[in-house]
Design goal:
This protein is of the alpha/beta class and about 300 residues long. About 40% of the residues lie in helices and about 20% in strands. The protein is built from 11 helices and 12 strands. Strands 2-1-3-4-5-11 form a 6-stranded parallel beta sheet, with helices on both faces. It has a 6-stranded mixed beta sheet with strand order 7-6-8-9-10-12, with helices on both faces. The longest helix is centred in the C-terminal third of the chain and has 20 residues. The C terminus is likely disordered.
Length: about 300
């Protein structure tokens, strides 16, 4: 019997972005476990363009197609009936069907904790949130972050911006400067290739960052005060392993949360751990024991595009 044809689709510029780094690591981990996995990069573009790219992959013959990230939700929704013999997995999405499953790390749990921390730590009482496209996972995390701010016990103003593009450093830089000018001294940035622009703003201005997906505190401690870790690469590895062992269940969603700290957790810079560690541990226990439910509902509009020249 021939090996299963497994493809992982990563959306964005080749080799850029923490979310895609996590997905790539998850695919490589599956290879280390003995699975033959093809990795394909689908460049930035429109949802329609992503659909056509995935359609081309399916036409070549794929047994399992893992679309990494919410950007794969709409394409898989539009394609799955066209390719009934292909099993699809969307990570960080919500599309399910007779041949589609979802695998998701609960970013909203670490985002809630990040919101509490931001509210406790902000000196100006103004905190920013920055994301790209208005995708389900990002909307859930924004809602949870805002809930965390409201829960911290201090009056804190939240500035939020969905800039429309995950991978544009210049746009991310302009958005961060705009929020800093309005008083923000912390920004929770949920970006991929565009994060370099946020980092640049943090190097130039009195504003610091709470990262997402990976442990940015360890990587760049001068810029990041915390990281809302949500290792989405775990979804890729587990989906491939479940498919290979016959345990993948189309029509269902498999989730990973704070109960698995290798997957979801809030990382604090050492100085913040001393100041806020006990409080953050108490909030985490409330999430784990079910006495606190994370709010994931956000119905907001995207702000008008910034004039990059005037924002610089």
């Amino acid at each position: 019997m021939s090996a299963a044809r497994i493809t992982v689709a990563l959306f964005g510029p080749h080799g850029r972005g923490a979310f895609n780094e996590a997905g790539l690591t998850g695919a490589l981990r599956a290879r280390e476990r003995g699975h033959e996995v093809e990795i394909r990069w689908v460049g930035p573009g429109t949802p329609e363009g992503r659909t056509e790219s995935l359609r081309d992959l399916c036409r070549r013959g794929v047994d399992l197609l893992v679309a990494h990230g919410g950007q794969g939700d709409a394409p898989v929704r539009d394609l799955h009936a066209e390719f009934p013999d292909t099993t699809f997995v969307v990570t960080q999405g919500h599309c399910t069907a007779s041949n589609v499953a979802c695998y998701e790390v609960l970013q909203e749990q670490s985002a809630f904790l990040a919101g509490v921390l931001a509210g406790l730590h902000s000196r100006t009482g103004v905190v920013g949130h920055l994301s790209g496209e208005m995708l389900r996972t990002g909307l859930k995390a924004r809602a949870a972050f805002a809930q965390g701010l409201r829960s911290c016990g201090r009056p804190v103003r939240l500035l939020t911006h969905f800039c429309g593009e995950q991978h544009d450093p210049a746009l991310a830089y302009a958005c961060t400067l705009s929020m800093q000018r309005e008083g923000a001294d912390l920004v929770f940035a949920m970006l991929d290739g565009g994060r370099a622009g946020v980092n640049q703003a943090c190097q130039e201005r009195p504003i610091r960052q709470i990262g997402s997906v990976l442990d940015w505190v360890e990587r760049e401690p001068d810029i990041f005060v915390a990281a809302a870790v949500a290792d989405s690469g775990r979804c890729v590895t587990e989906a491939i392993n479940d498919f290979a062992t016959g345990r993948l269940r189309p029509g269902t969603s498999r989730q990973f949360g704070l109960e698995d700290s290798s997957c979801v957790r809030l990382v604090l810079a050492p100085a913040l751990r001393v100041i806020h560690g006990r409080a953050m541990d108490a909030w985490q226990r409330r999430l784990l024991d079910g006495t606190l439910t994370v709010d994931t509902g956000f119905e907001g509009s995207r702000p008008a595009p910034l004039d990059l020249a005037s924002a610089a």
